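Hi W.,

Here's what went into the run:
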Amino acid sequence: MSTSMHAAFRQAEKAKALDEVPVGAVLVCDGDIIARAHNLVMMRKDPTAHAEILVIQEGALALDTIFLSNCDLYVTLEPCAMCAQAIAFARVRRLYFGAYDPKGGGIDHGARIFSQKTCHHIPEVYGGILESKCSSILINFFKNKRTLNAPK
Amino acid sequence: MSTSMHAAFRQAEKAKALDEVPVGAVLVCDGDIIARAHNLVMMRKDPTAHAEILVIQEGALALDTIFLSNCDLYVTLEPCAMCAQAIAFARVRRLYFGAYDPKGGGIDHGARIFSQKTCHHIPEVYGGILESKCSSILINFFKNKRTLNAPK
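Here's what came out:
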C-alpha cells in the first residue's frame, strides 16, 4: 500500500517540476501499477486534467474497459467532487489518498460524493496515507508561489 | 438560446447514431459556437468522456485558456457531479440544460455541486430548455435497449 502511494508521490514530484499543482496518482491492478499520472491542468490547458481523471483514462485504455472493478487508485490528495464522481463511474474498488483537502475535497468534505443516495458505486476509502509528505509538497508549492508573487 | 440547445441536441443525435447514451453539448462564446461534443464513453473506453467534459476540453484548447469565463454551456441533460464540478473549475458563465436527471444529476439533484459552501464558482443555471425533446431521445434510447435485451 505504502509502495503504491510512494509511486503516486513521485508523480506529484513530476507535476511540481513542471510547475503544476503537485498531485499524483497511480492505478493498481492485481498488484501491478498499470497507470501513472499527475496533474496537467496548465500544461494541457485543460481544467479537467487532474491526476485521477488522467490515471482512470489511461487505466481504462490499458484494460480496454470502462469498469476498473479490480483496480485500486492511489492519489496524494483527497479527490475533488469531479474526480470522486469519475472514480464512482469507473467502479474503482479501493481509493487510497494522502492529504485531506477541507477546501477542495469531495470525499470527506464538500459534496461528499460517496455519501450521496444517488451514488451508484462506493469504493472502500482510506485517507491519510503518507499524509505528511503528500501535504508538505502542496504547502511548500503554494508557499513558494506566494513568495514569488509578493510585492518587492 | 434555443438555437444553441438545438445544436446541442444534434450532438445528442450523433451520439445516438453511435449507440452512445444520447447527450450532447455546445459551448458558446460571444454568440458563436466554439466547441461541440457528445457522449463518447463507450467508443473511447473512457468513463469520463461525457459531452460536457469533452466540450470544455475542446473550448479551453480553442481559446487557449483554462477559464471559460465568457462562455455559456448548453447540454441536453442535467450535468452529473463530475461535469458540474468541471463546469465550476472552468468558470463557465451560464449553464443551460435540457432534461432534468433525478437519478444522475448533480445540479438540482444528488450532490448539488453549486450549492456546496466550498464551490468556488457558480454559473447562472437554466434548466428545462427544450426539455421534452432532450428527455424523449434518452427515454427512447433506453426503451430500445431494454427491448433488445428482453428474453425472446
